[in-house]
Amino acid sequence: MKLSGRNAIITGASQGLGKVIAEHFLREGANVVLCARSEADLNKTRDELARLAPDRKVLARTCDVSDEAQVNNVVAFAIHELGSVEVLVANAGVYGPMGPTESVNLDEWRRALDINLFGVLLPARALIPHFKRAKGGKIVVISGGGATNPLPNISAYAASKAAVVRLMETLAEELKTHNVDVNAIAPGALATRLVDEVLAAGPDKVGAVFFEKNKQWKEKGAVSPDLGASLAVYLASADSDGITGRLISAQWDPWRDLHTHREELAKSDIYCLRRIVPEDRGQKWS
């Protein structure tokens, strides 16, 4: 089992991709602390997963990942109950307000950044001293399409996810000498509650093209969350040691053998956010 003996905190774990990641982690031998805002959903998921993996520790704690005190309490709880934490999966996220940027509610826009960006920063900050003392650790961030492509009418999500990836790259550089690997996952289009939110908002708010994409994902199926969860297992395991500062697509990138390219990755900006200049496209403008 790839995660035997490892303990993980997974945020946004009561449903959707977070829940699937927890299932995969348990299957691979990890103990987990699940956190989410809804106590009822969280306890239901904890009990369900505990039945699936009776020989693992499945713990749960309600937490708003944008609240520093609550995040610190979850981290302290996990370390106390499990003895150590080797992995953080920062999965919690929201789309935020939908509609033209000039007319959406600004408080909701800020709230989306609080959850999507600070929801990565705060748990990472809380665990970094623990990882440094342990001389190693893994931080896995769930990003998405908003990080690499504009998303008209969902600007808070797009801006926060791009910020999350640059935060991930920065933390990777800061923590490289401490053997802490920090990476992000683009899980692909998932038929989760976020799709339902887009469909409920309607084409006038989110745009006809994006609405139609989500409608197709809902009706005909989208990317399986098992793919992103499997990549999360890989990035949490010893197989990926030394791979850090990368945004990896679960759907499109050959991540299962990525460790065979470890040295090439370390010397390149492959799977990183970078500015494209004319020469990158065979043009010379000066």
Number of strands: 7
Query: What low-confidence regions span 5 or more consecutive residues with pLDDT below 50?
Result: none
Q: How would you describe the shape?
A: globular
Biggest sheet strand order reads 3-2-1-4-5-6-7
| Strand residue percentage | 5-15%
Structural class: alpha/beta
Largest sheet: 7 strands, parallel
Mean pLDDT metric: 93
What count of helical segments does DSSP give?
A: 11
Note down, in words, how this protein is organized.
Helix 3 (68-82) packs parallel to helix 5 (118-134). With 286 residues, this protein is of the alpha/beta class. Helix 2 links the parallel strand 2 and strand 3 (58-62). The radius of gyration is 19 Å and the shape is globular. A 7-stranded parallel beta sheet has the order 3-2-1-4-5-6-7, with helices on both faces. It is built from 11 helices and 7 strands.
Write a concise keyword list for the protein shown above.
alpha/beta; 286 residues; globular
Helices and strands, with pairings:
Layout: E1 7-11, H1 16-27, E2 31-36, H2 39-52, E3 58-62, H3 68-82, E4 87-90, H4 106-116, H5 118-134, E5 137-142, H6 155-175, E6 180-186, H7 193-201, H8 203-206, H9 208-220, H10 225-236, E7 247-249, H11 262-266
Parallel strand pairs: 1-2, 1-4, 2-3, 4-5, 5-6, 6-7
Q: Summarize this, please?
A:
By secondary structure, the chain is an alpha/beta fold.
